[in-house]
Recover the amino acids of this structure.
């Protein structure tokens, strides 16, 4: 499940007509990076939870016969195969989050519940984050979940002390190196329980819905996933999974630009020319 039910306000006015998840990162829409990462882990039935204006995203993953015909006539067979590949990536269901649900990053789970396989664990990820990794994060998470079988698995990475106030910081249970006790959202500088922060990838068992059924909206009137995870950790085993890779939150214009540069530097067809372009620009700033 991929949650993109927000309004993208940090990207306005660019996101007024085009969902931020369709903005490209190194030439590929952010949402496609997420779908391909899930597919790499063997997840081919994907729910994308949207609030509205999802038509552009749906069209991106749907066949476009007119475009395919044009590419074929033009002899652009590599592009033709890529366009066809995108429409065959996975079985994708788009679920609109009802306006009756509270705003918040836990509400998409409630919106998608009817489409989940009863009794089975499910993958839950935010649409903003991207991780540069040799092994995609969903693969890392699924392998760990099969080994550990907790009530919930939370992807985590370590950040410097001076950045802990920006994220949800994880407190571990005494004597444990990976079992979560609770999360502190954006702790005051110097008060973080650890340098571990949760990033936007989770695997949940259906026990999550037992918690969400009694969870009231929290800060700002929003239904927070961190509050639900806290309650899970108080009653069951919630484990953090350190992620191998570089986590980049791409939810605002500057971080999105950074993600573009970092991803482009990993592409052989972009790397050298991008470095040649950036080097004199950087030199002129000093």
């Amino acid at each position: 499940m991929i949650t993109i039910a927000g309004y993208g306000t940090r990207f306005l006015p660019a996101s007024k007509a085009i969902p931020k998840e369709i903005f490209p990162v190194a030439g590929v829409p952010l949402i496609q990076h997420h779908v391909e990462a899930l597919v790499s882990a063997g997840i081919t039935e994907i729910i994308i939870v949207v609030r509205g204006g999802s038509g552009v995203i749906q069209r991106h993953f749907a066949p476009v016969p007119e475009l395919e015909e044009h590419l074929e006539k033009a002899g652009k067979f590599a592009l033709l195969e890529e366009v066809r590949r995108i429409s065959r990536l996975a079985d994708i269901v788009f679920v609109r989050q009802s306006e009756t649900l509270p705003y918040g990053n836990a509400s998409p789970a409630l919106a998608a519940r009817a489409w989940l396989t009863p009794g089975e664990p499910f993958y839950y990820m935010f649409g903003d984050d991207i991780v540069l990794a040799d092994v995609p994060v969903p693969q890392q998470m699924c392998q760990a979940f099969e080994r550990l079988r907790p009530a919930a698995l939370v992807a985590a990475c370590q950040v410097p002390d001076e950045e802990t106030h920006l994220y949800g910081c994880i407190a571990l249970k005494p004597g444990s190196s990976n079992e979560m006790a609770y999360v502190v959202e954006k702790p005051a500088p110097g008060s973080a329980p650890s340098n571990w922060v949760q990033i936007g990838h989770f695997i949940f068992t259906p026990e999550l819905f037992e918690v969400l059924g009694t969870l009231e909206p929290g800060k700002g009137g929003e239904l927070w996933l961190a509050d639900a995870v806290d309650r899970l950790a108080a009653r069951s085993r919630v484990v953090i999974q350190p992620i191998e890779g570089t986590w980049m939150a791409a939810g605002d214009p500057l971080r999105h630009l950074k993600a573009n540069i970092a991803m482009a530097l990993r592409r052989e067809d972009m790397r050298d020319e991008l470095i040649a372009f950036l080097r004199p620009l950087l030199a002129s700033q000093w």
In short: The chain has ten helices and 13 strands. The chain has one domain: 2-283.
